[in-house]
Request: fold
Amino acid sequence: MSWNQRHIERLDEELSKGHDLSQSPGDDSESEAMKEARRDVRNLTAALRLARLKEFKQHIDAHRSGQQGRATHTSAPAPAERSRSRRILLLAATAAVILLMFIFVINSPESGPAAGSRNQYLAEHFDAFIQHDVSRNSTTDGLTQEQLNAYNLFVLGRFDQALPVLEDLWITRDDPLAMYYLILCHAATGQTDEARTLFLQHQTLLSPEQQELIQRLF
Reply:
């Protein structure tokens, strides 16, 4: 019988007796073969445990990698989806800007000549203050071209330019409508005290409607 065969039989015998070759320390009477067999069993047991630990670690790592992959796939949108989201945000921002501009235009004073007025009420009700027909027709035949030009400077919102022209027209012609527009031009250019002084001095020359309109400026 060869040594290997005897060695295997001895191991079988020890196992059949219930001996744990991986844990039993052995005694001095054991043969070298038995001691070596015990060492082999302990090494094999340690190797099996290490292999199982490595296998378990690989299983854990694979499980974690799978979770990270699913999380990345879920949280990171596809390029097409990101592009679509950017387009939606851009359209929403554009619509918001247009809406704000529309609201601003609605709530701001009338644009055009009225925008140059520093008097808020005059700017908001500019058309109501125009007291002559701005076109040359039968209703304006009684006005000279000089008068129309002076009045229309107010209509065009050229208040600073209209002041000396209207003042000269008032001095040379005692024109009540020139005084009316002169008061308005002073109010429109921020000269409220001057406008009020002229109104108090010459209000009897103005019509009741003109007086009421000017009083709303102060």
The CA atoms of residues 156 and 193 lie 23 Å apart. The radius of gyration is 52 Å. The chain has a mean pLDDT of 76. The longest helix spans residues 32-75.
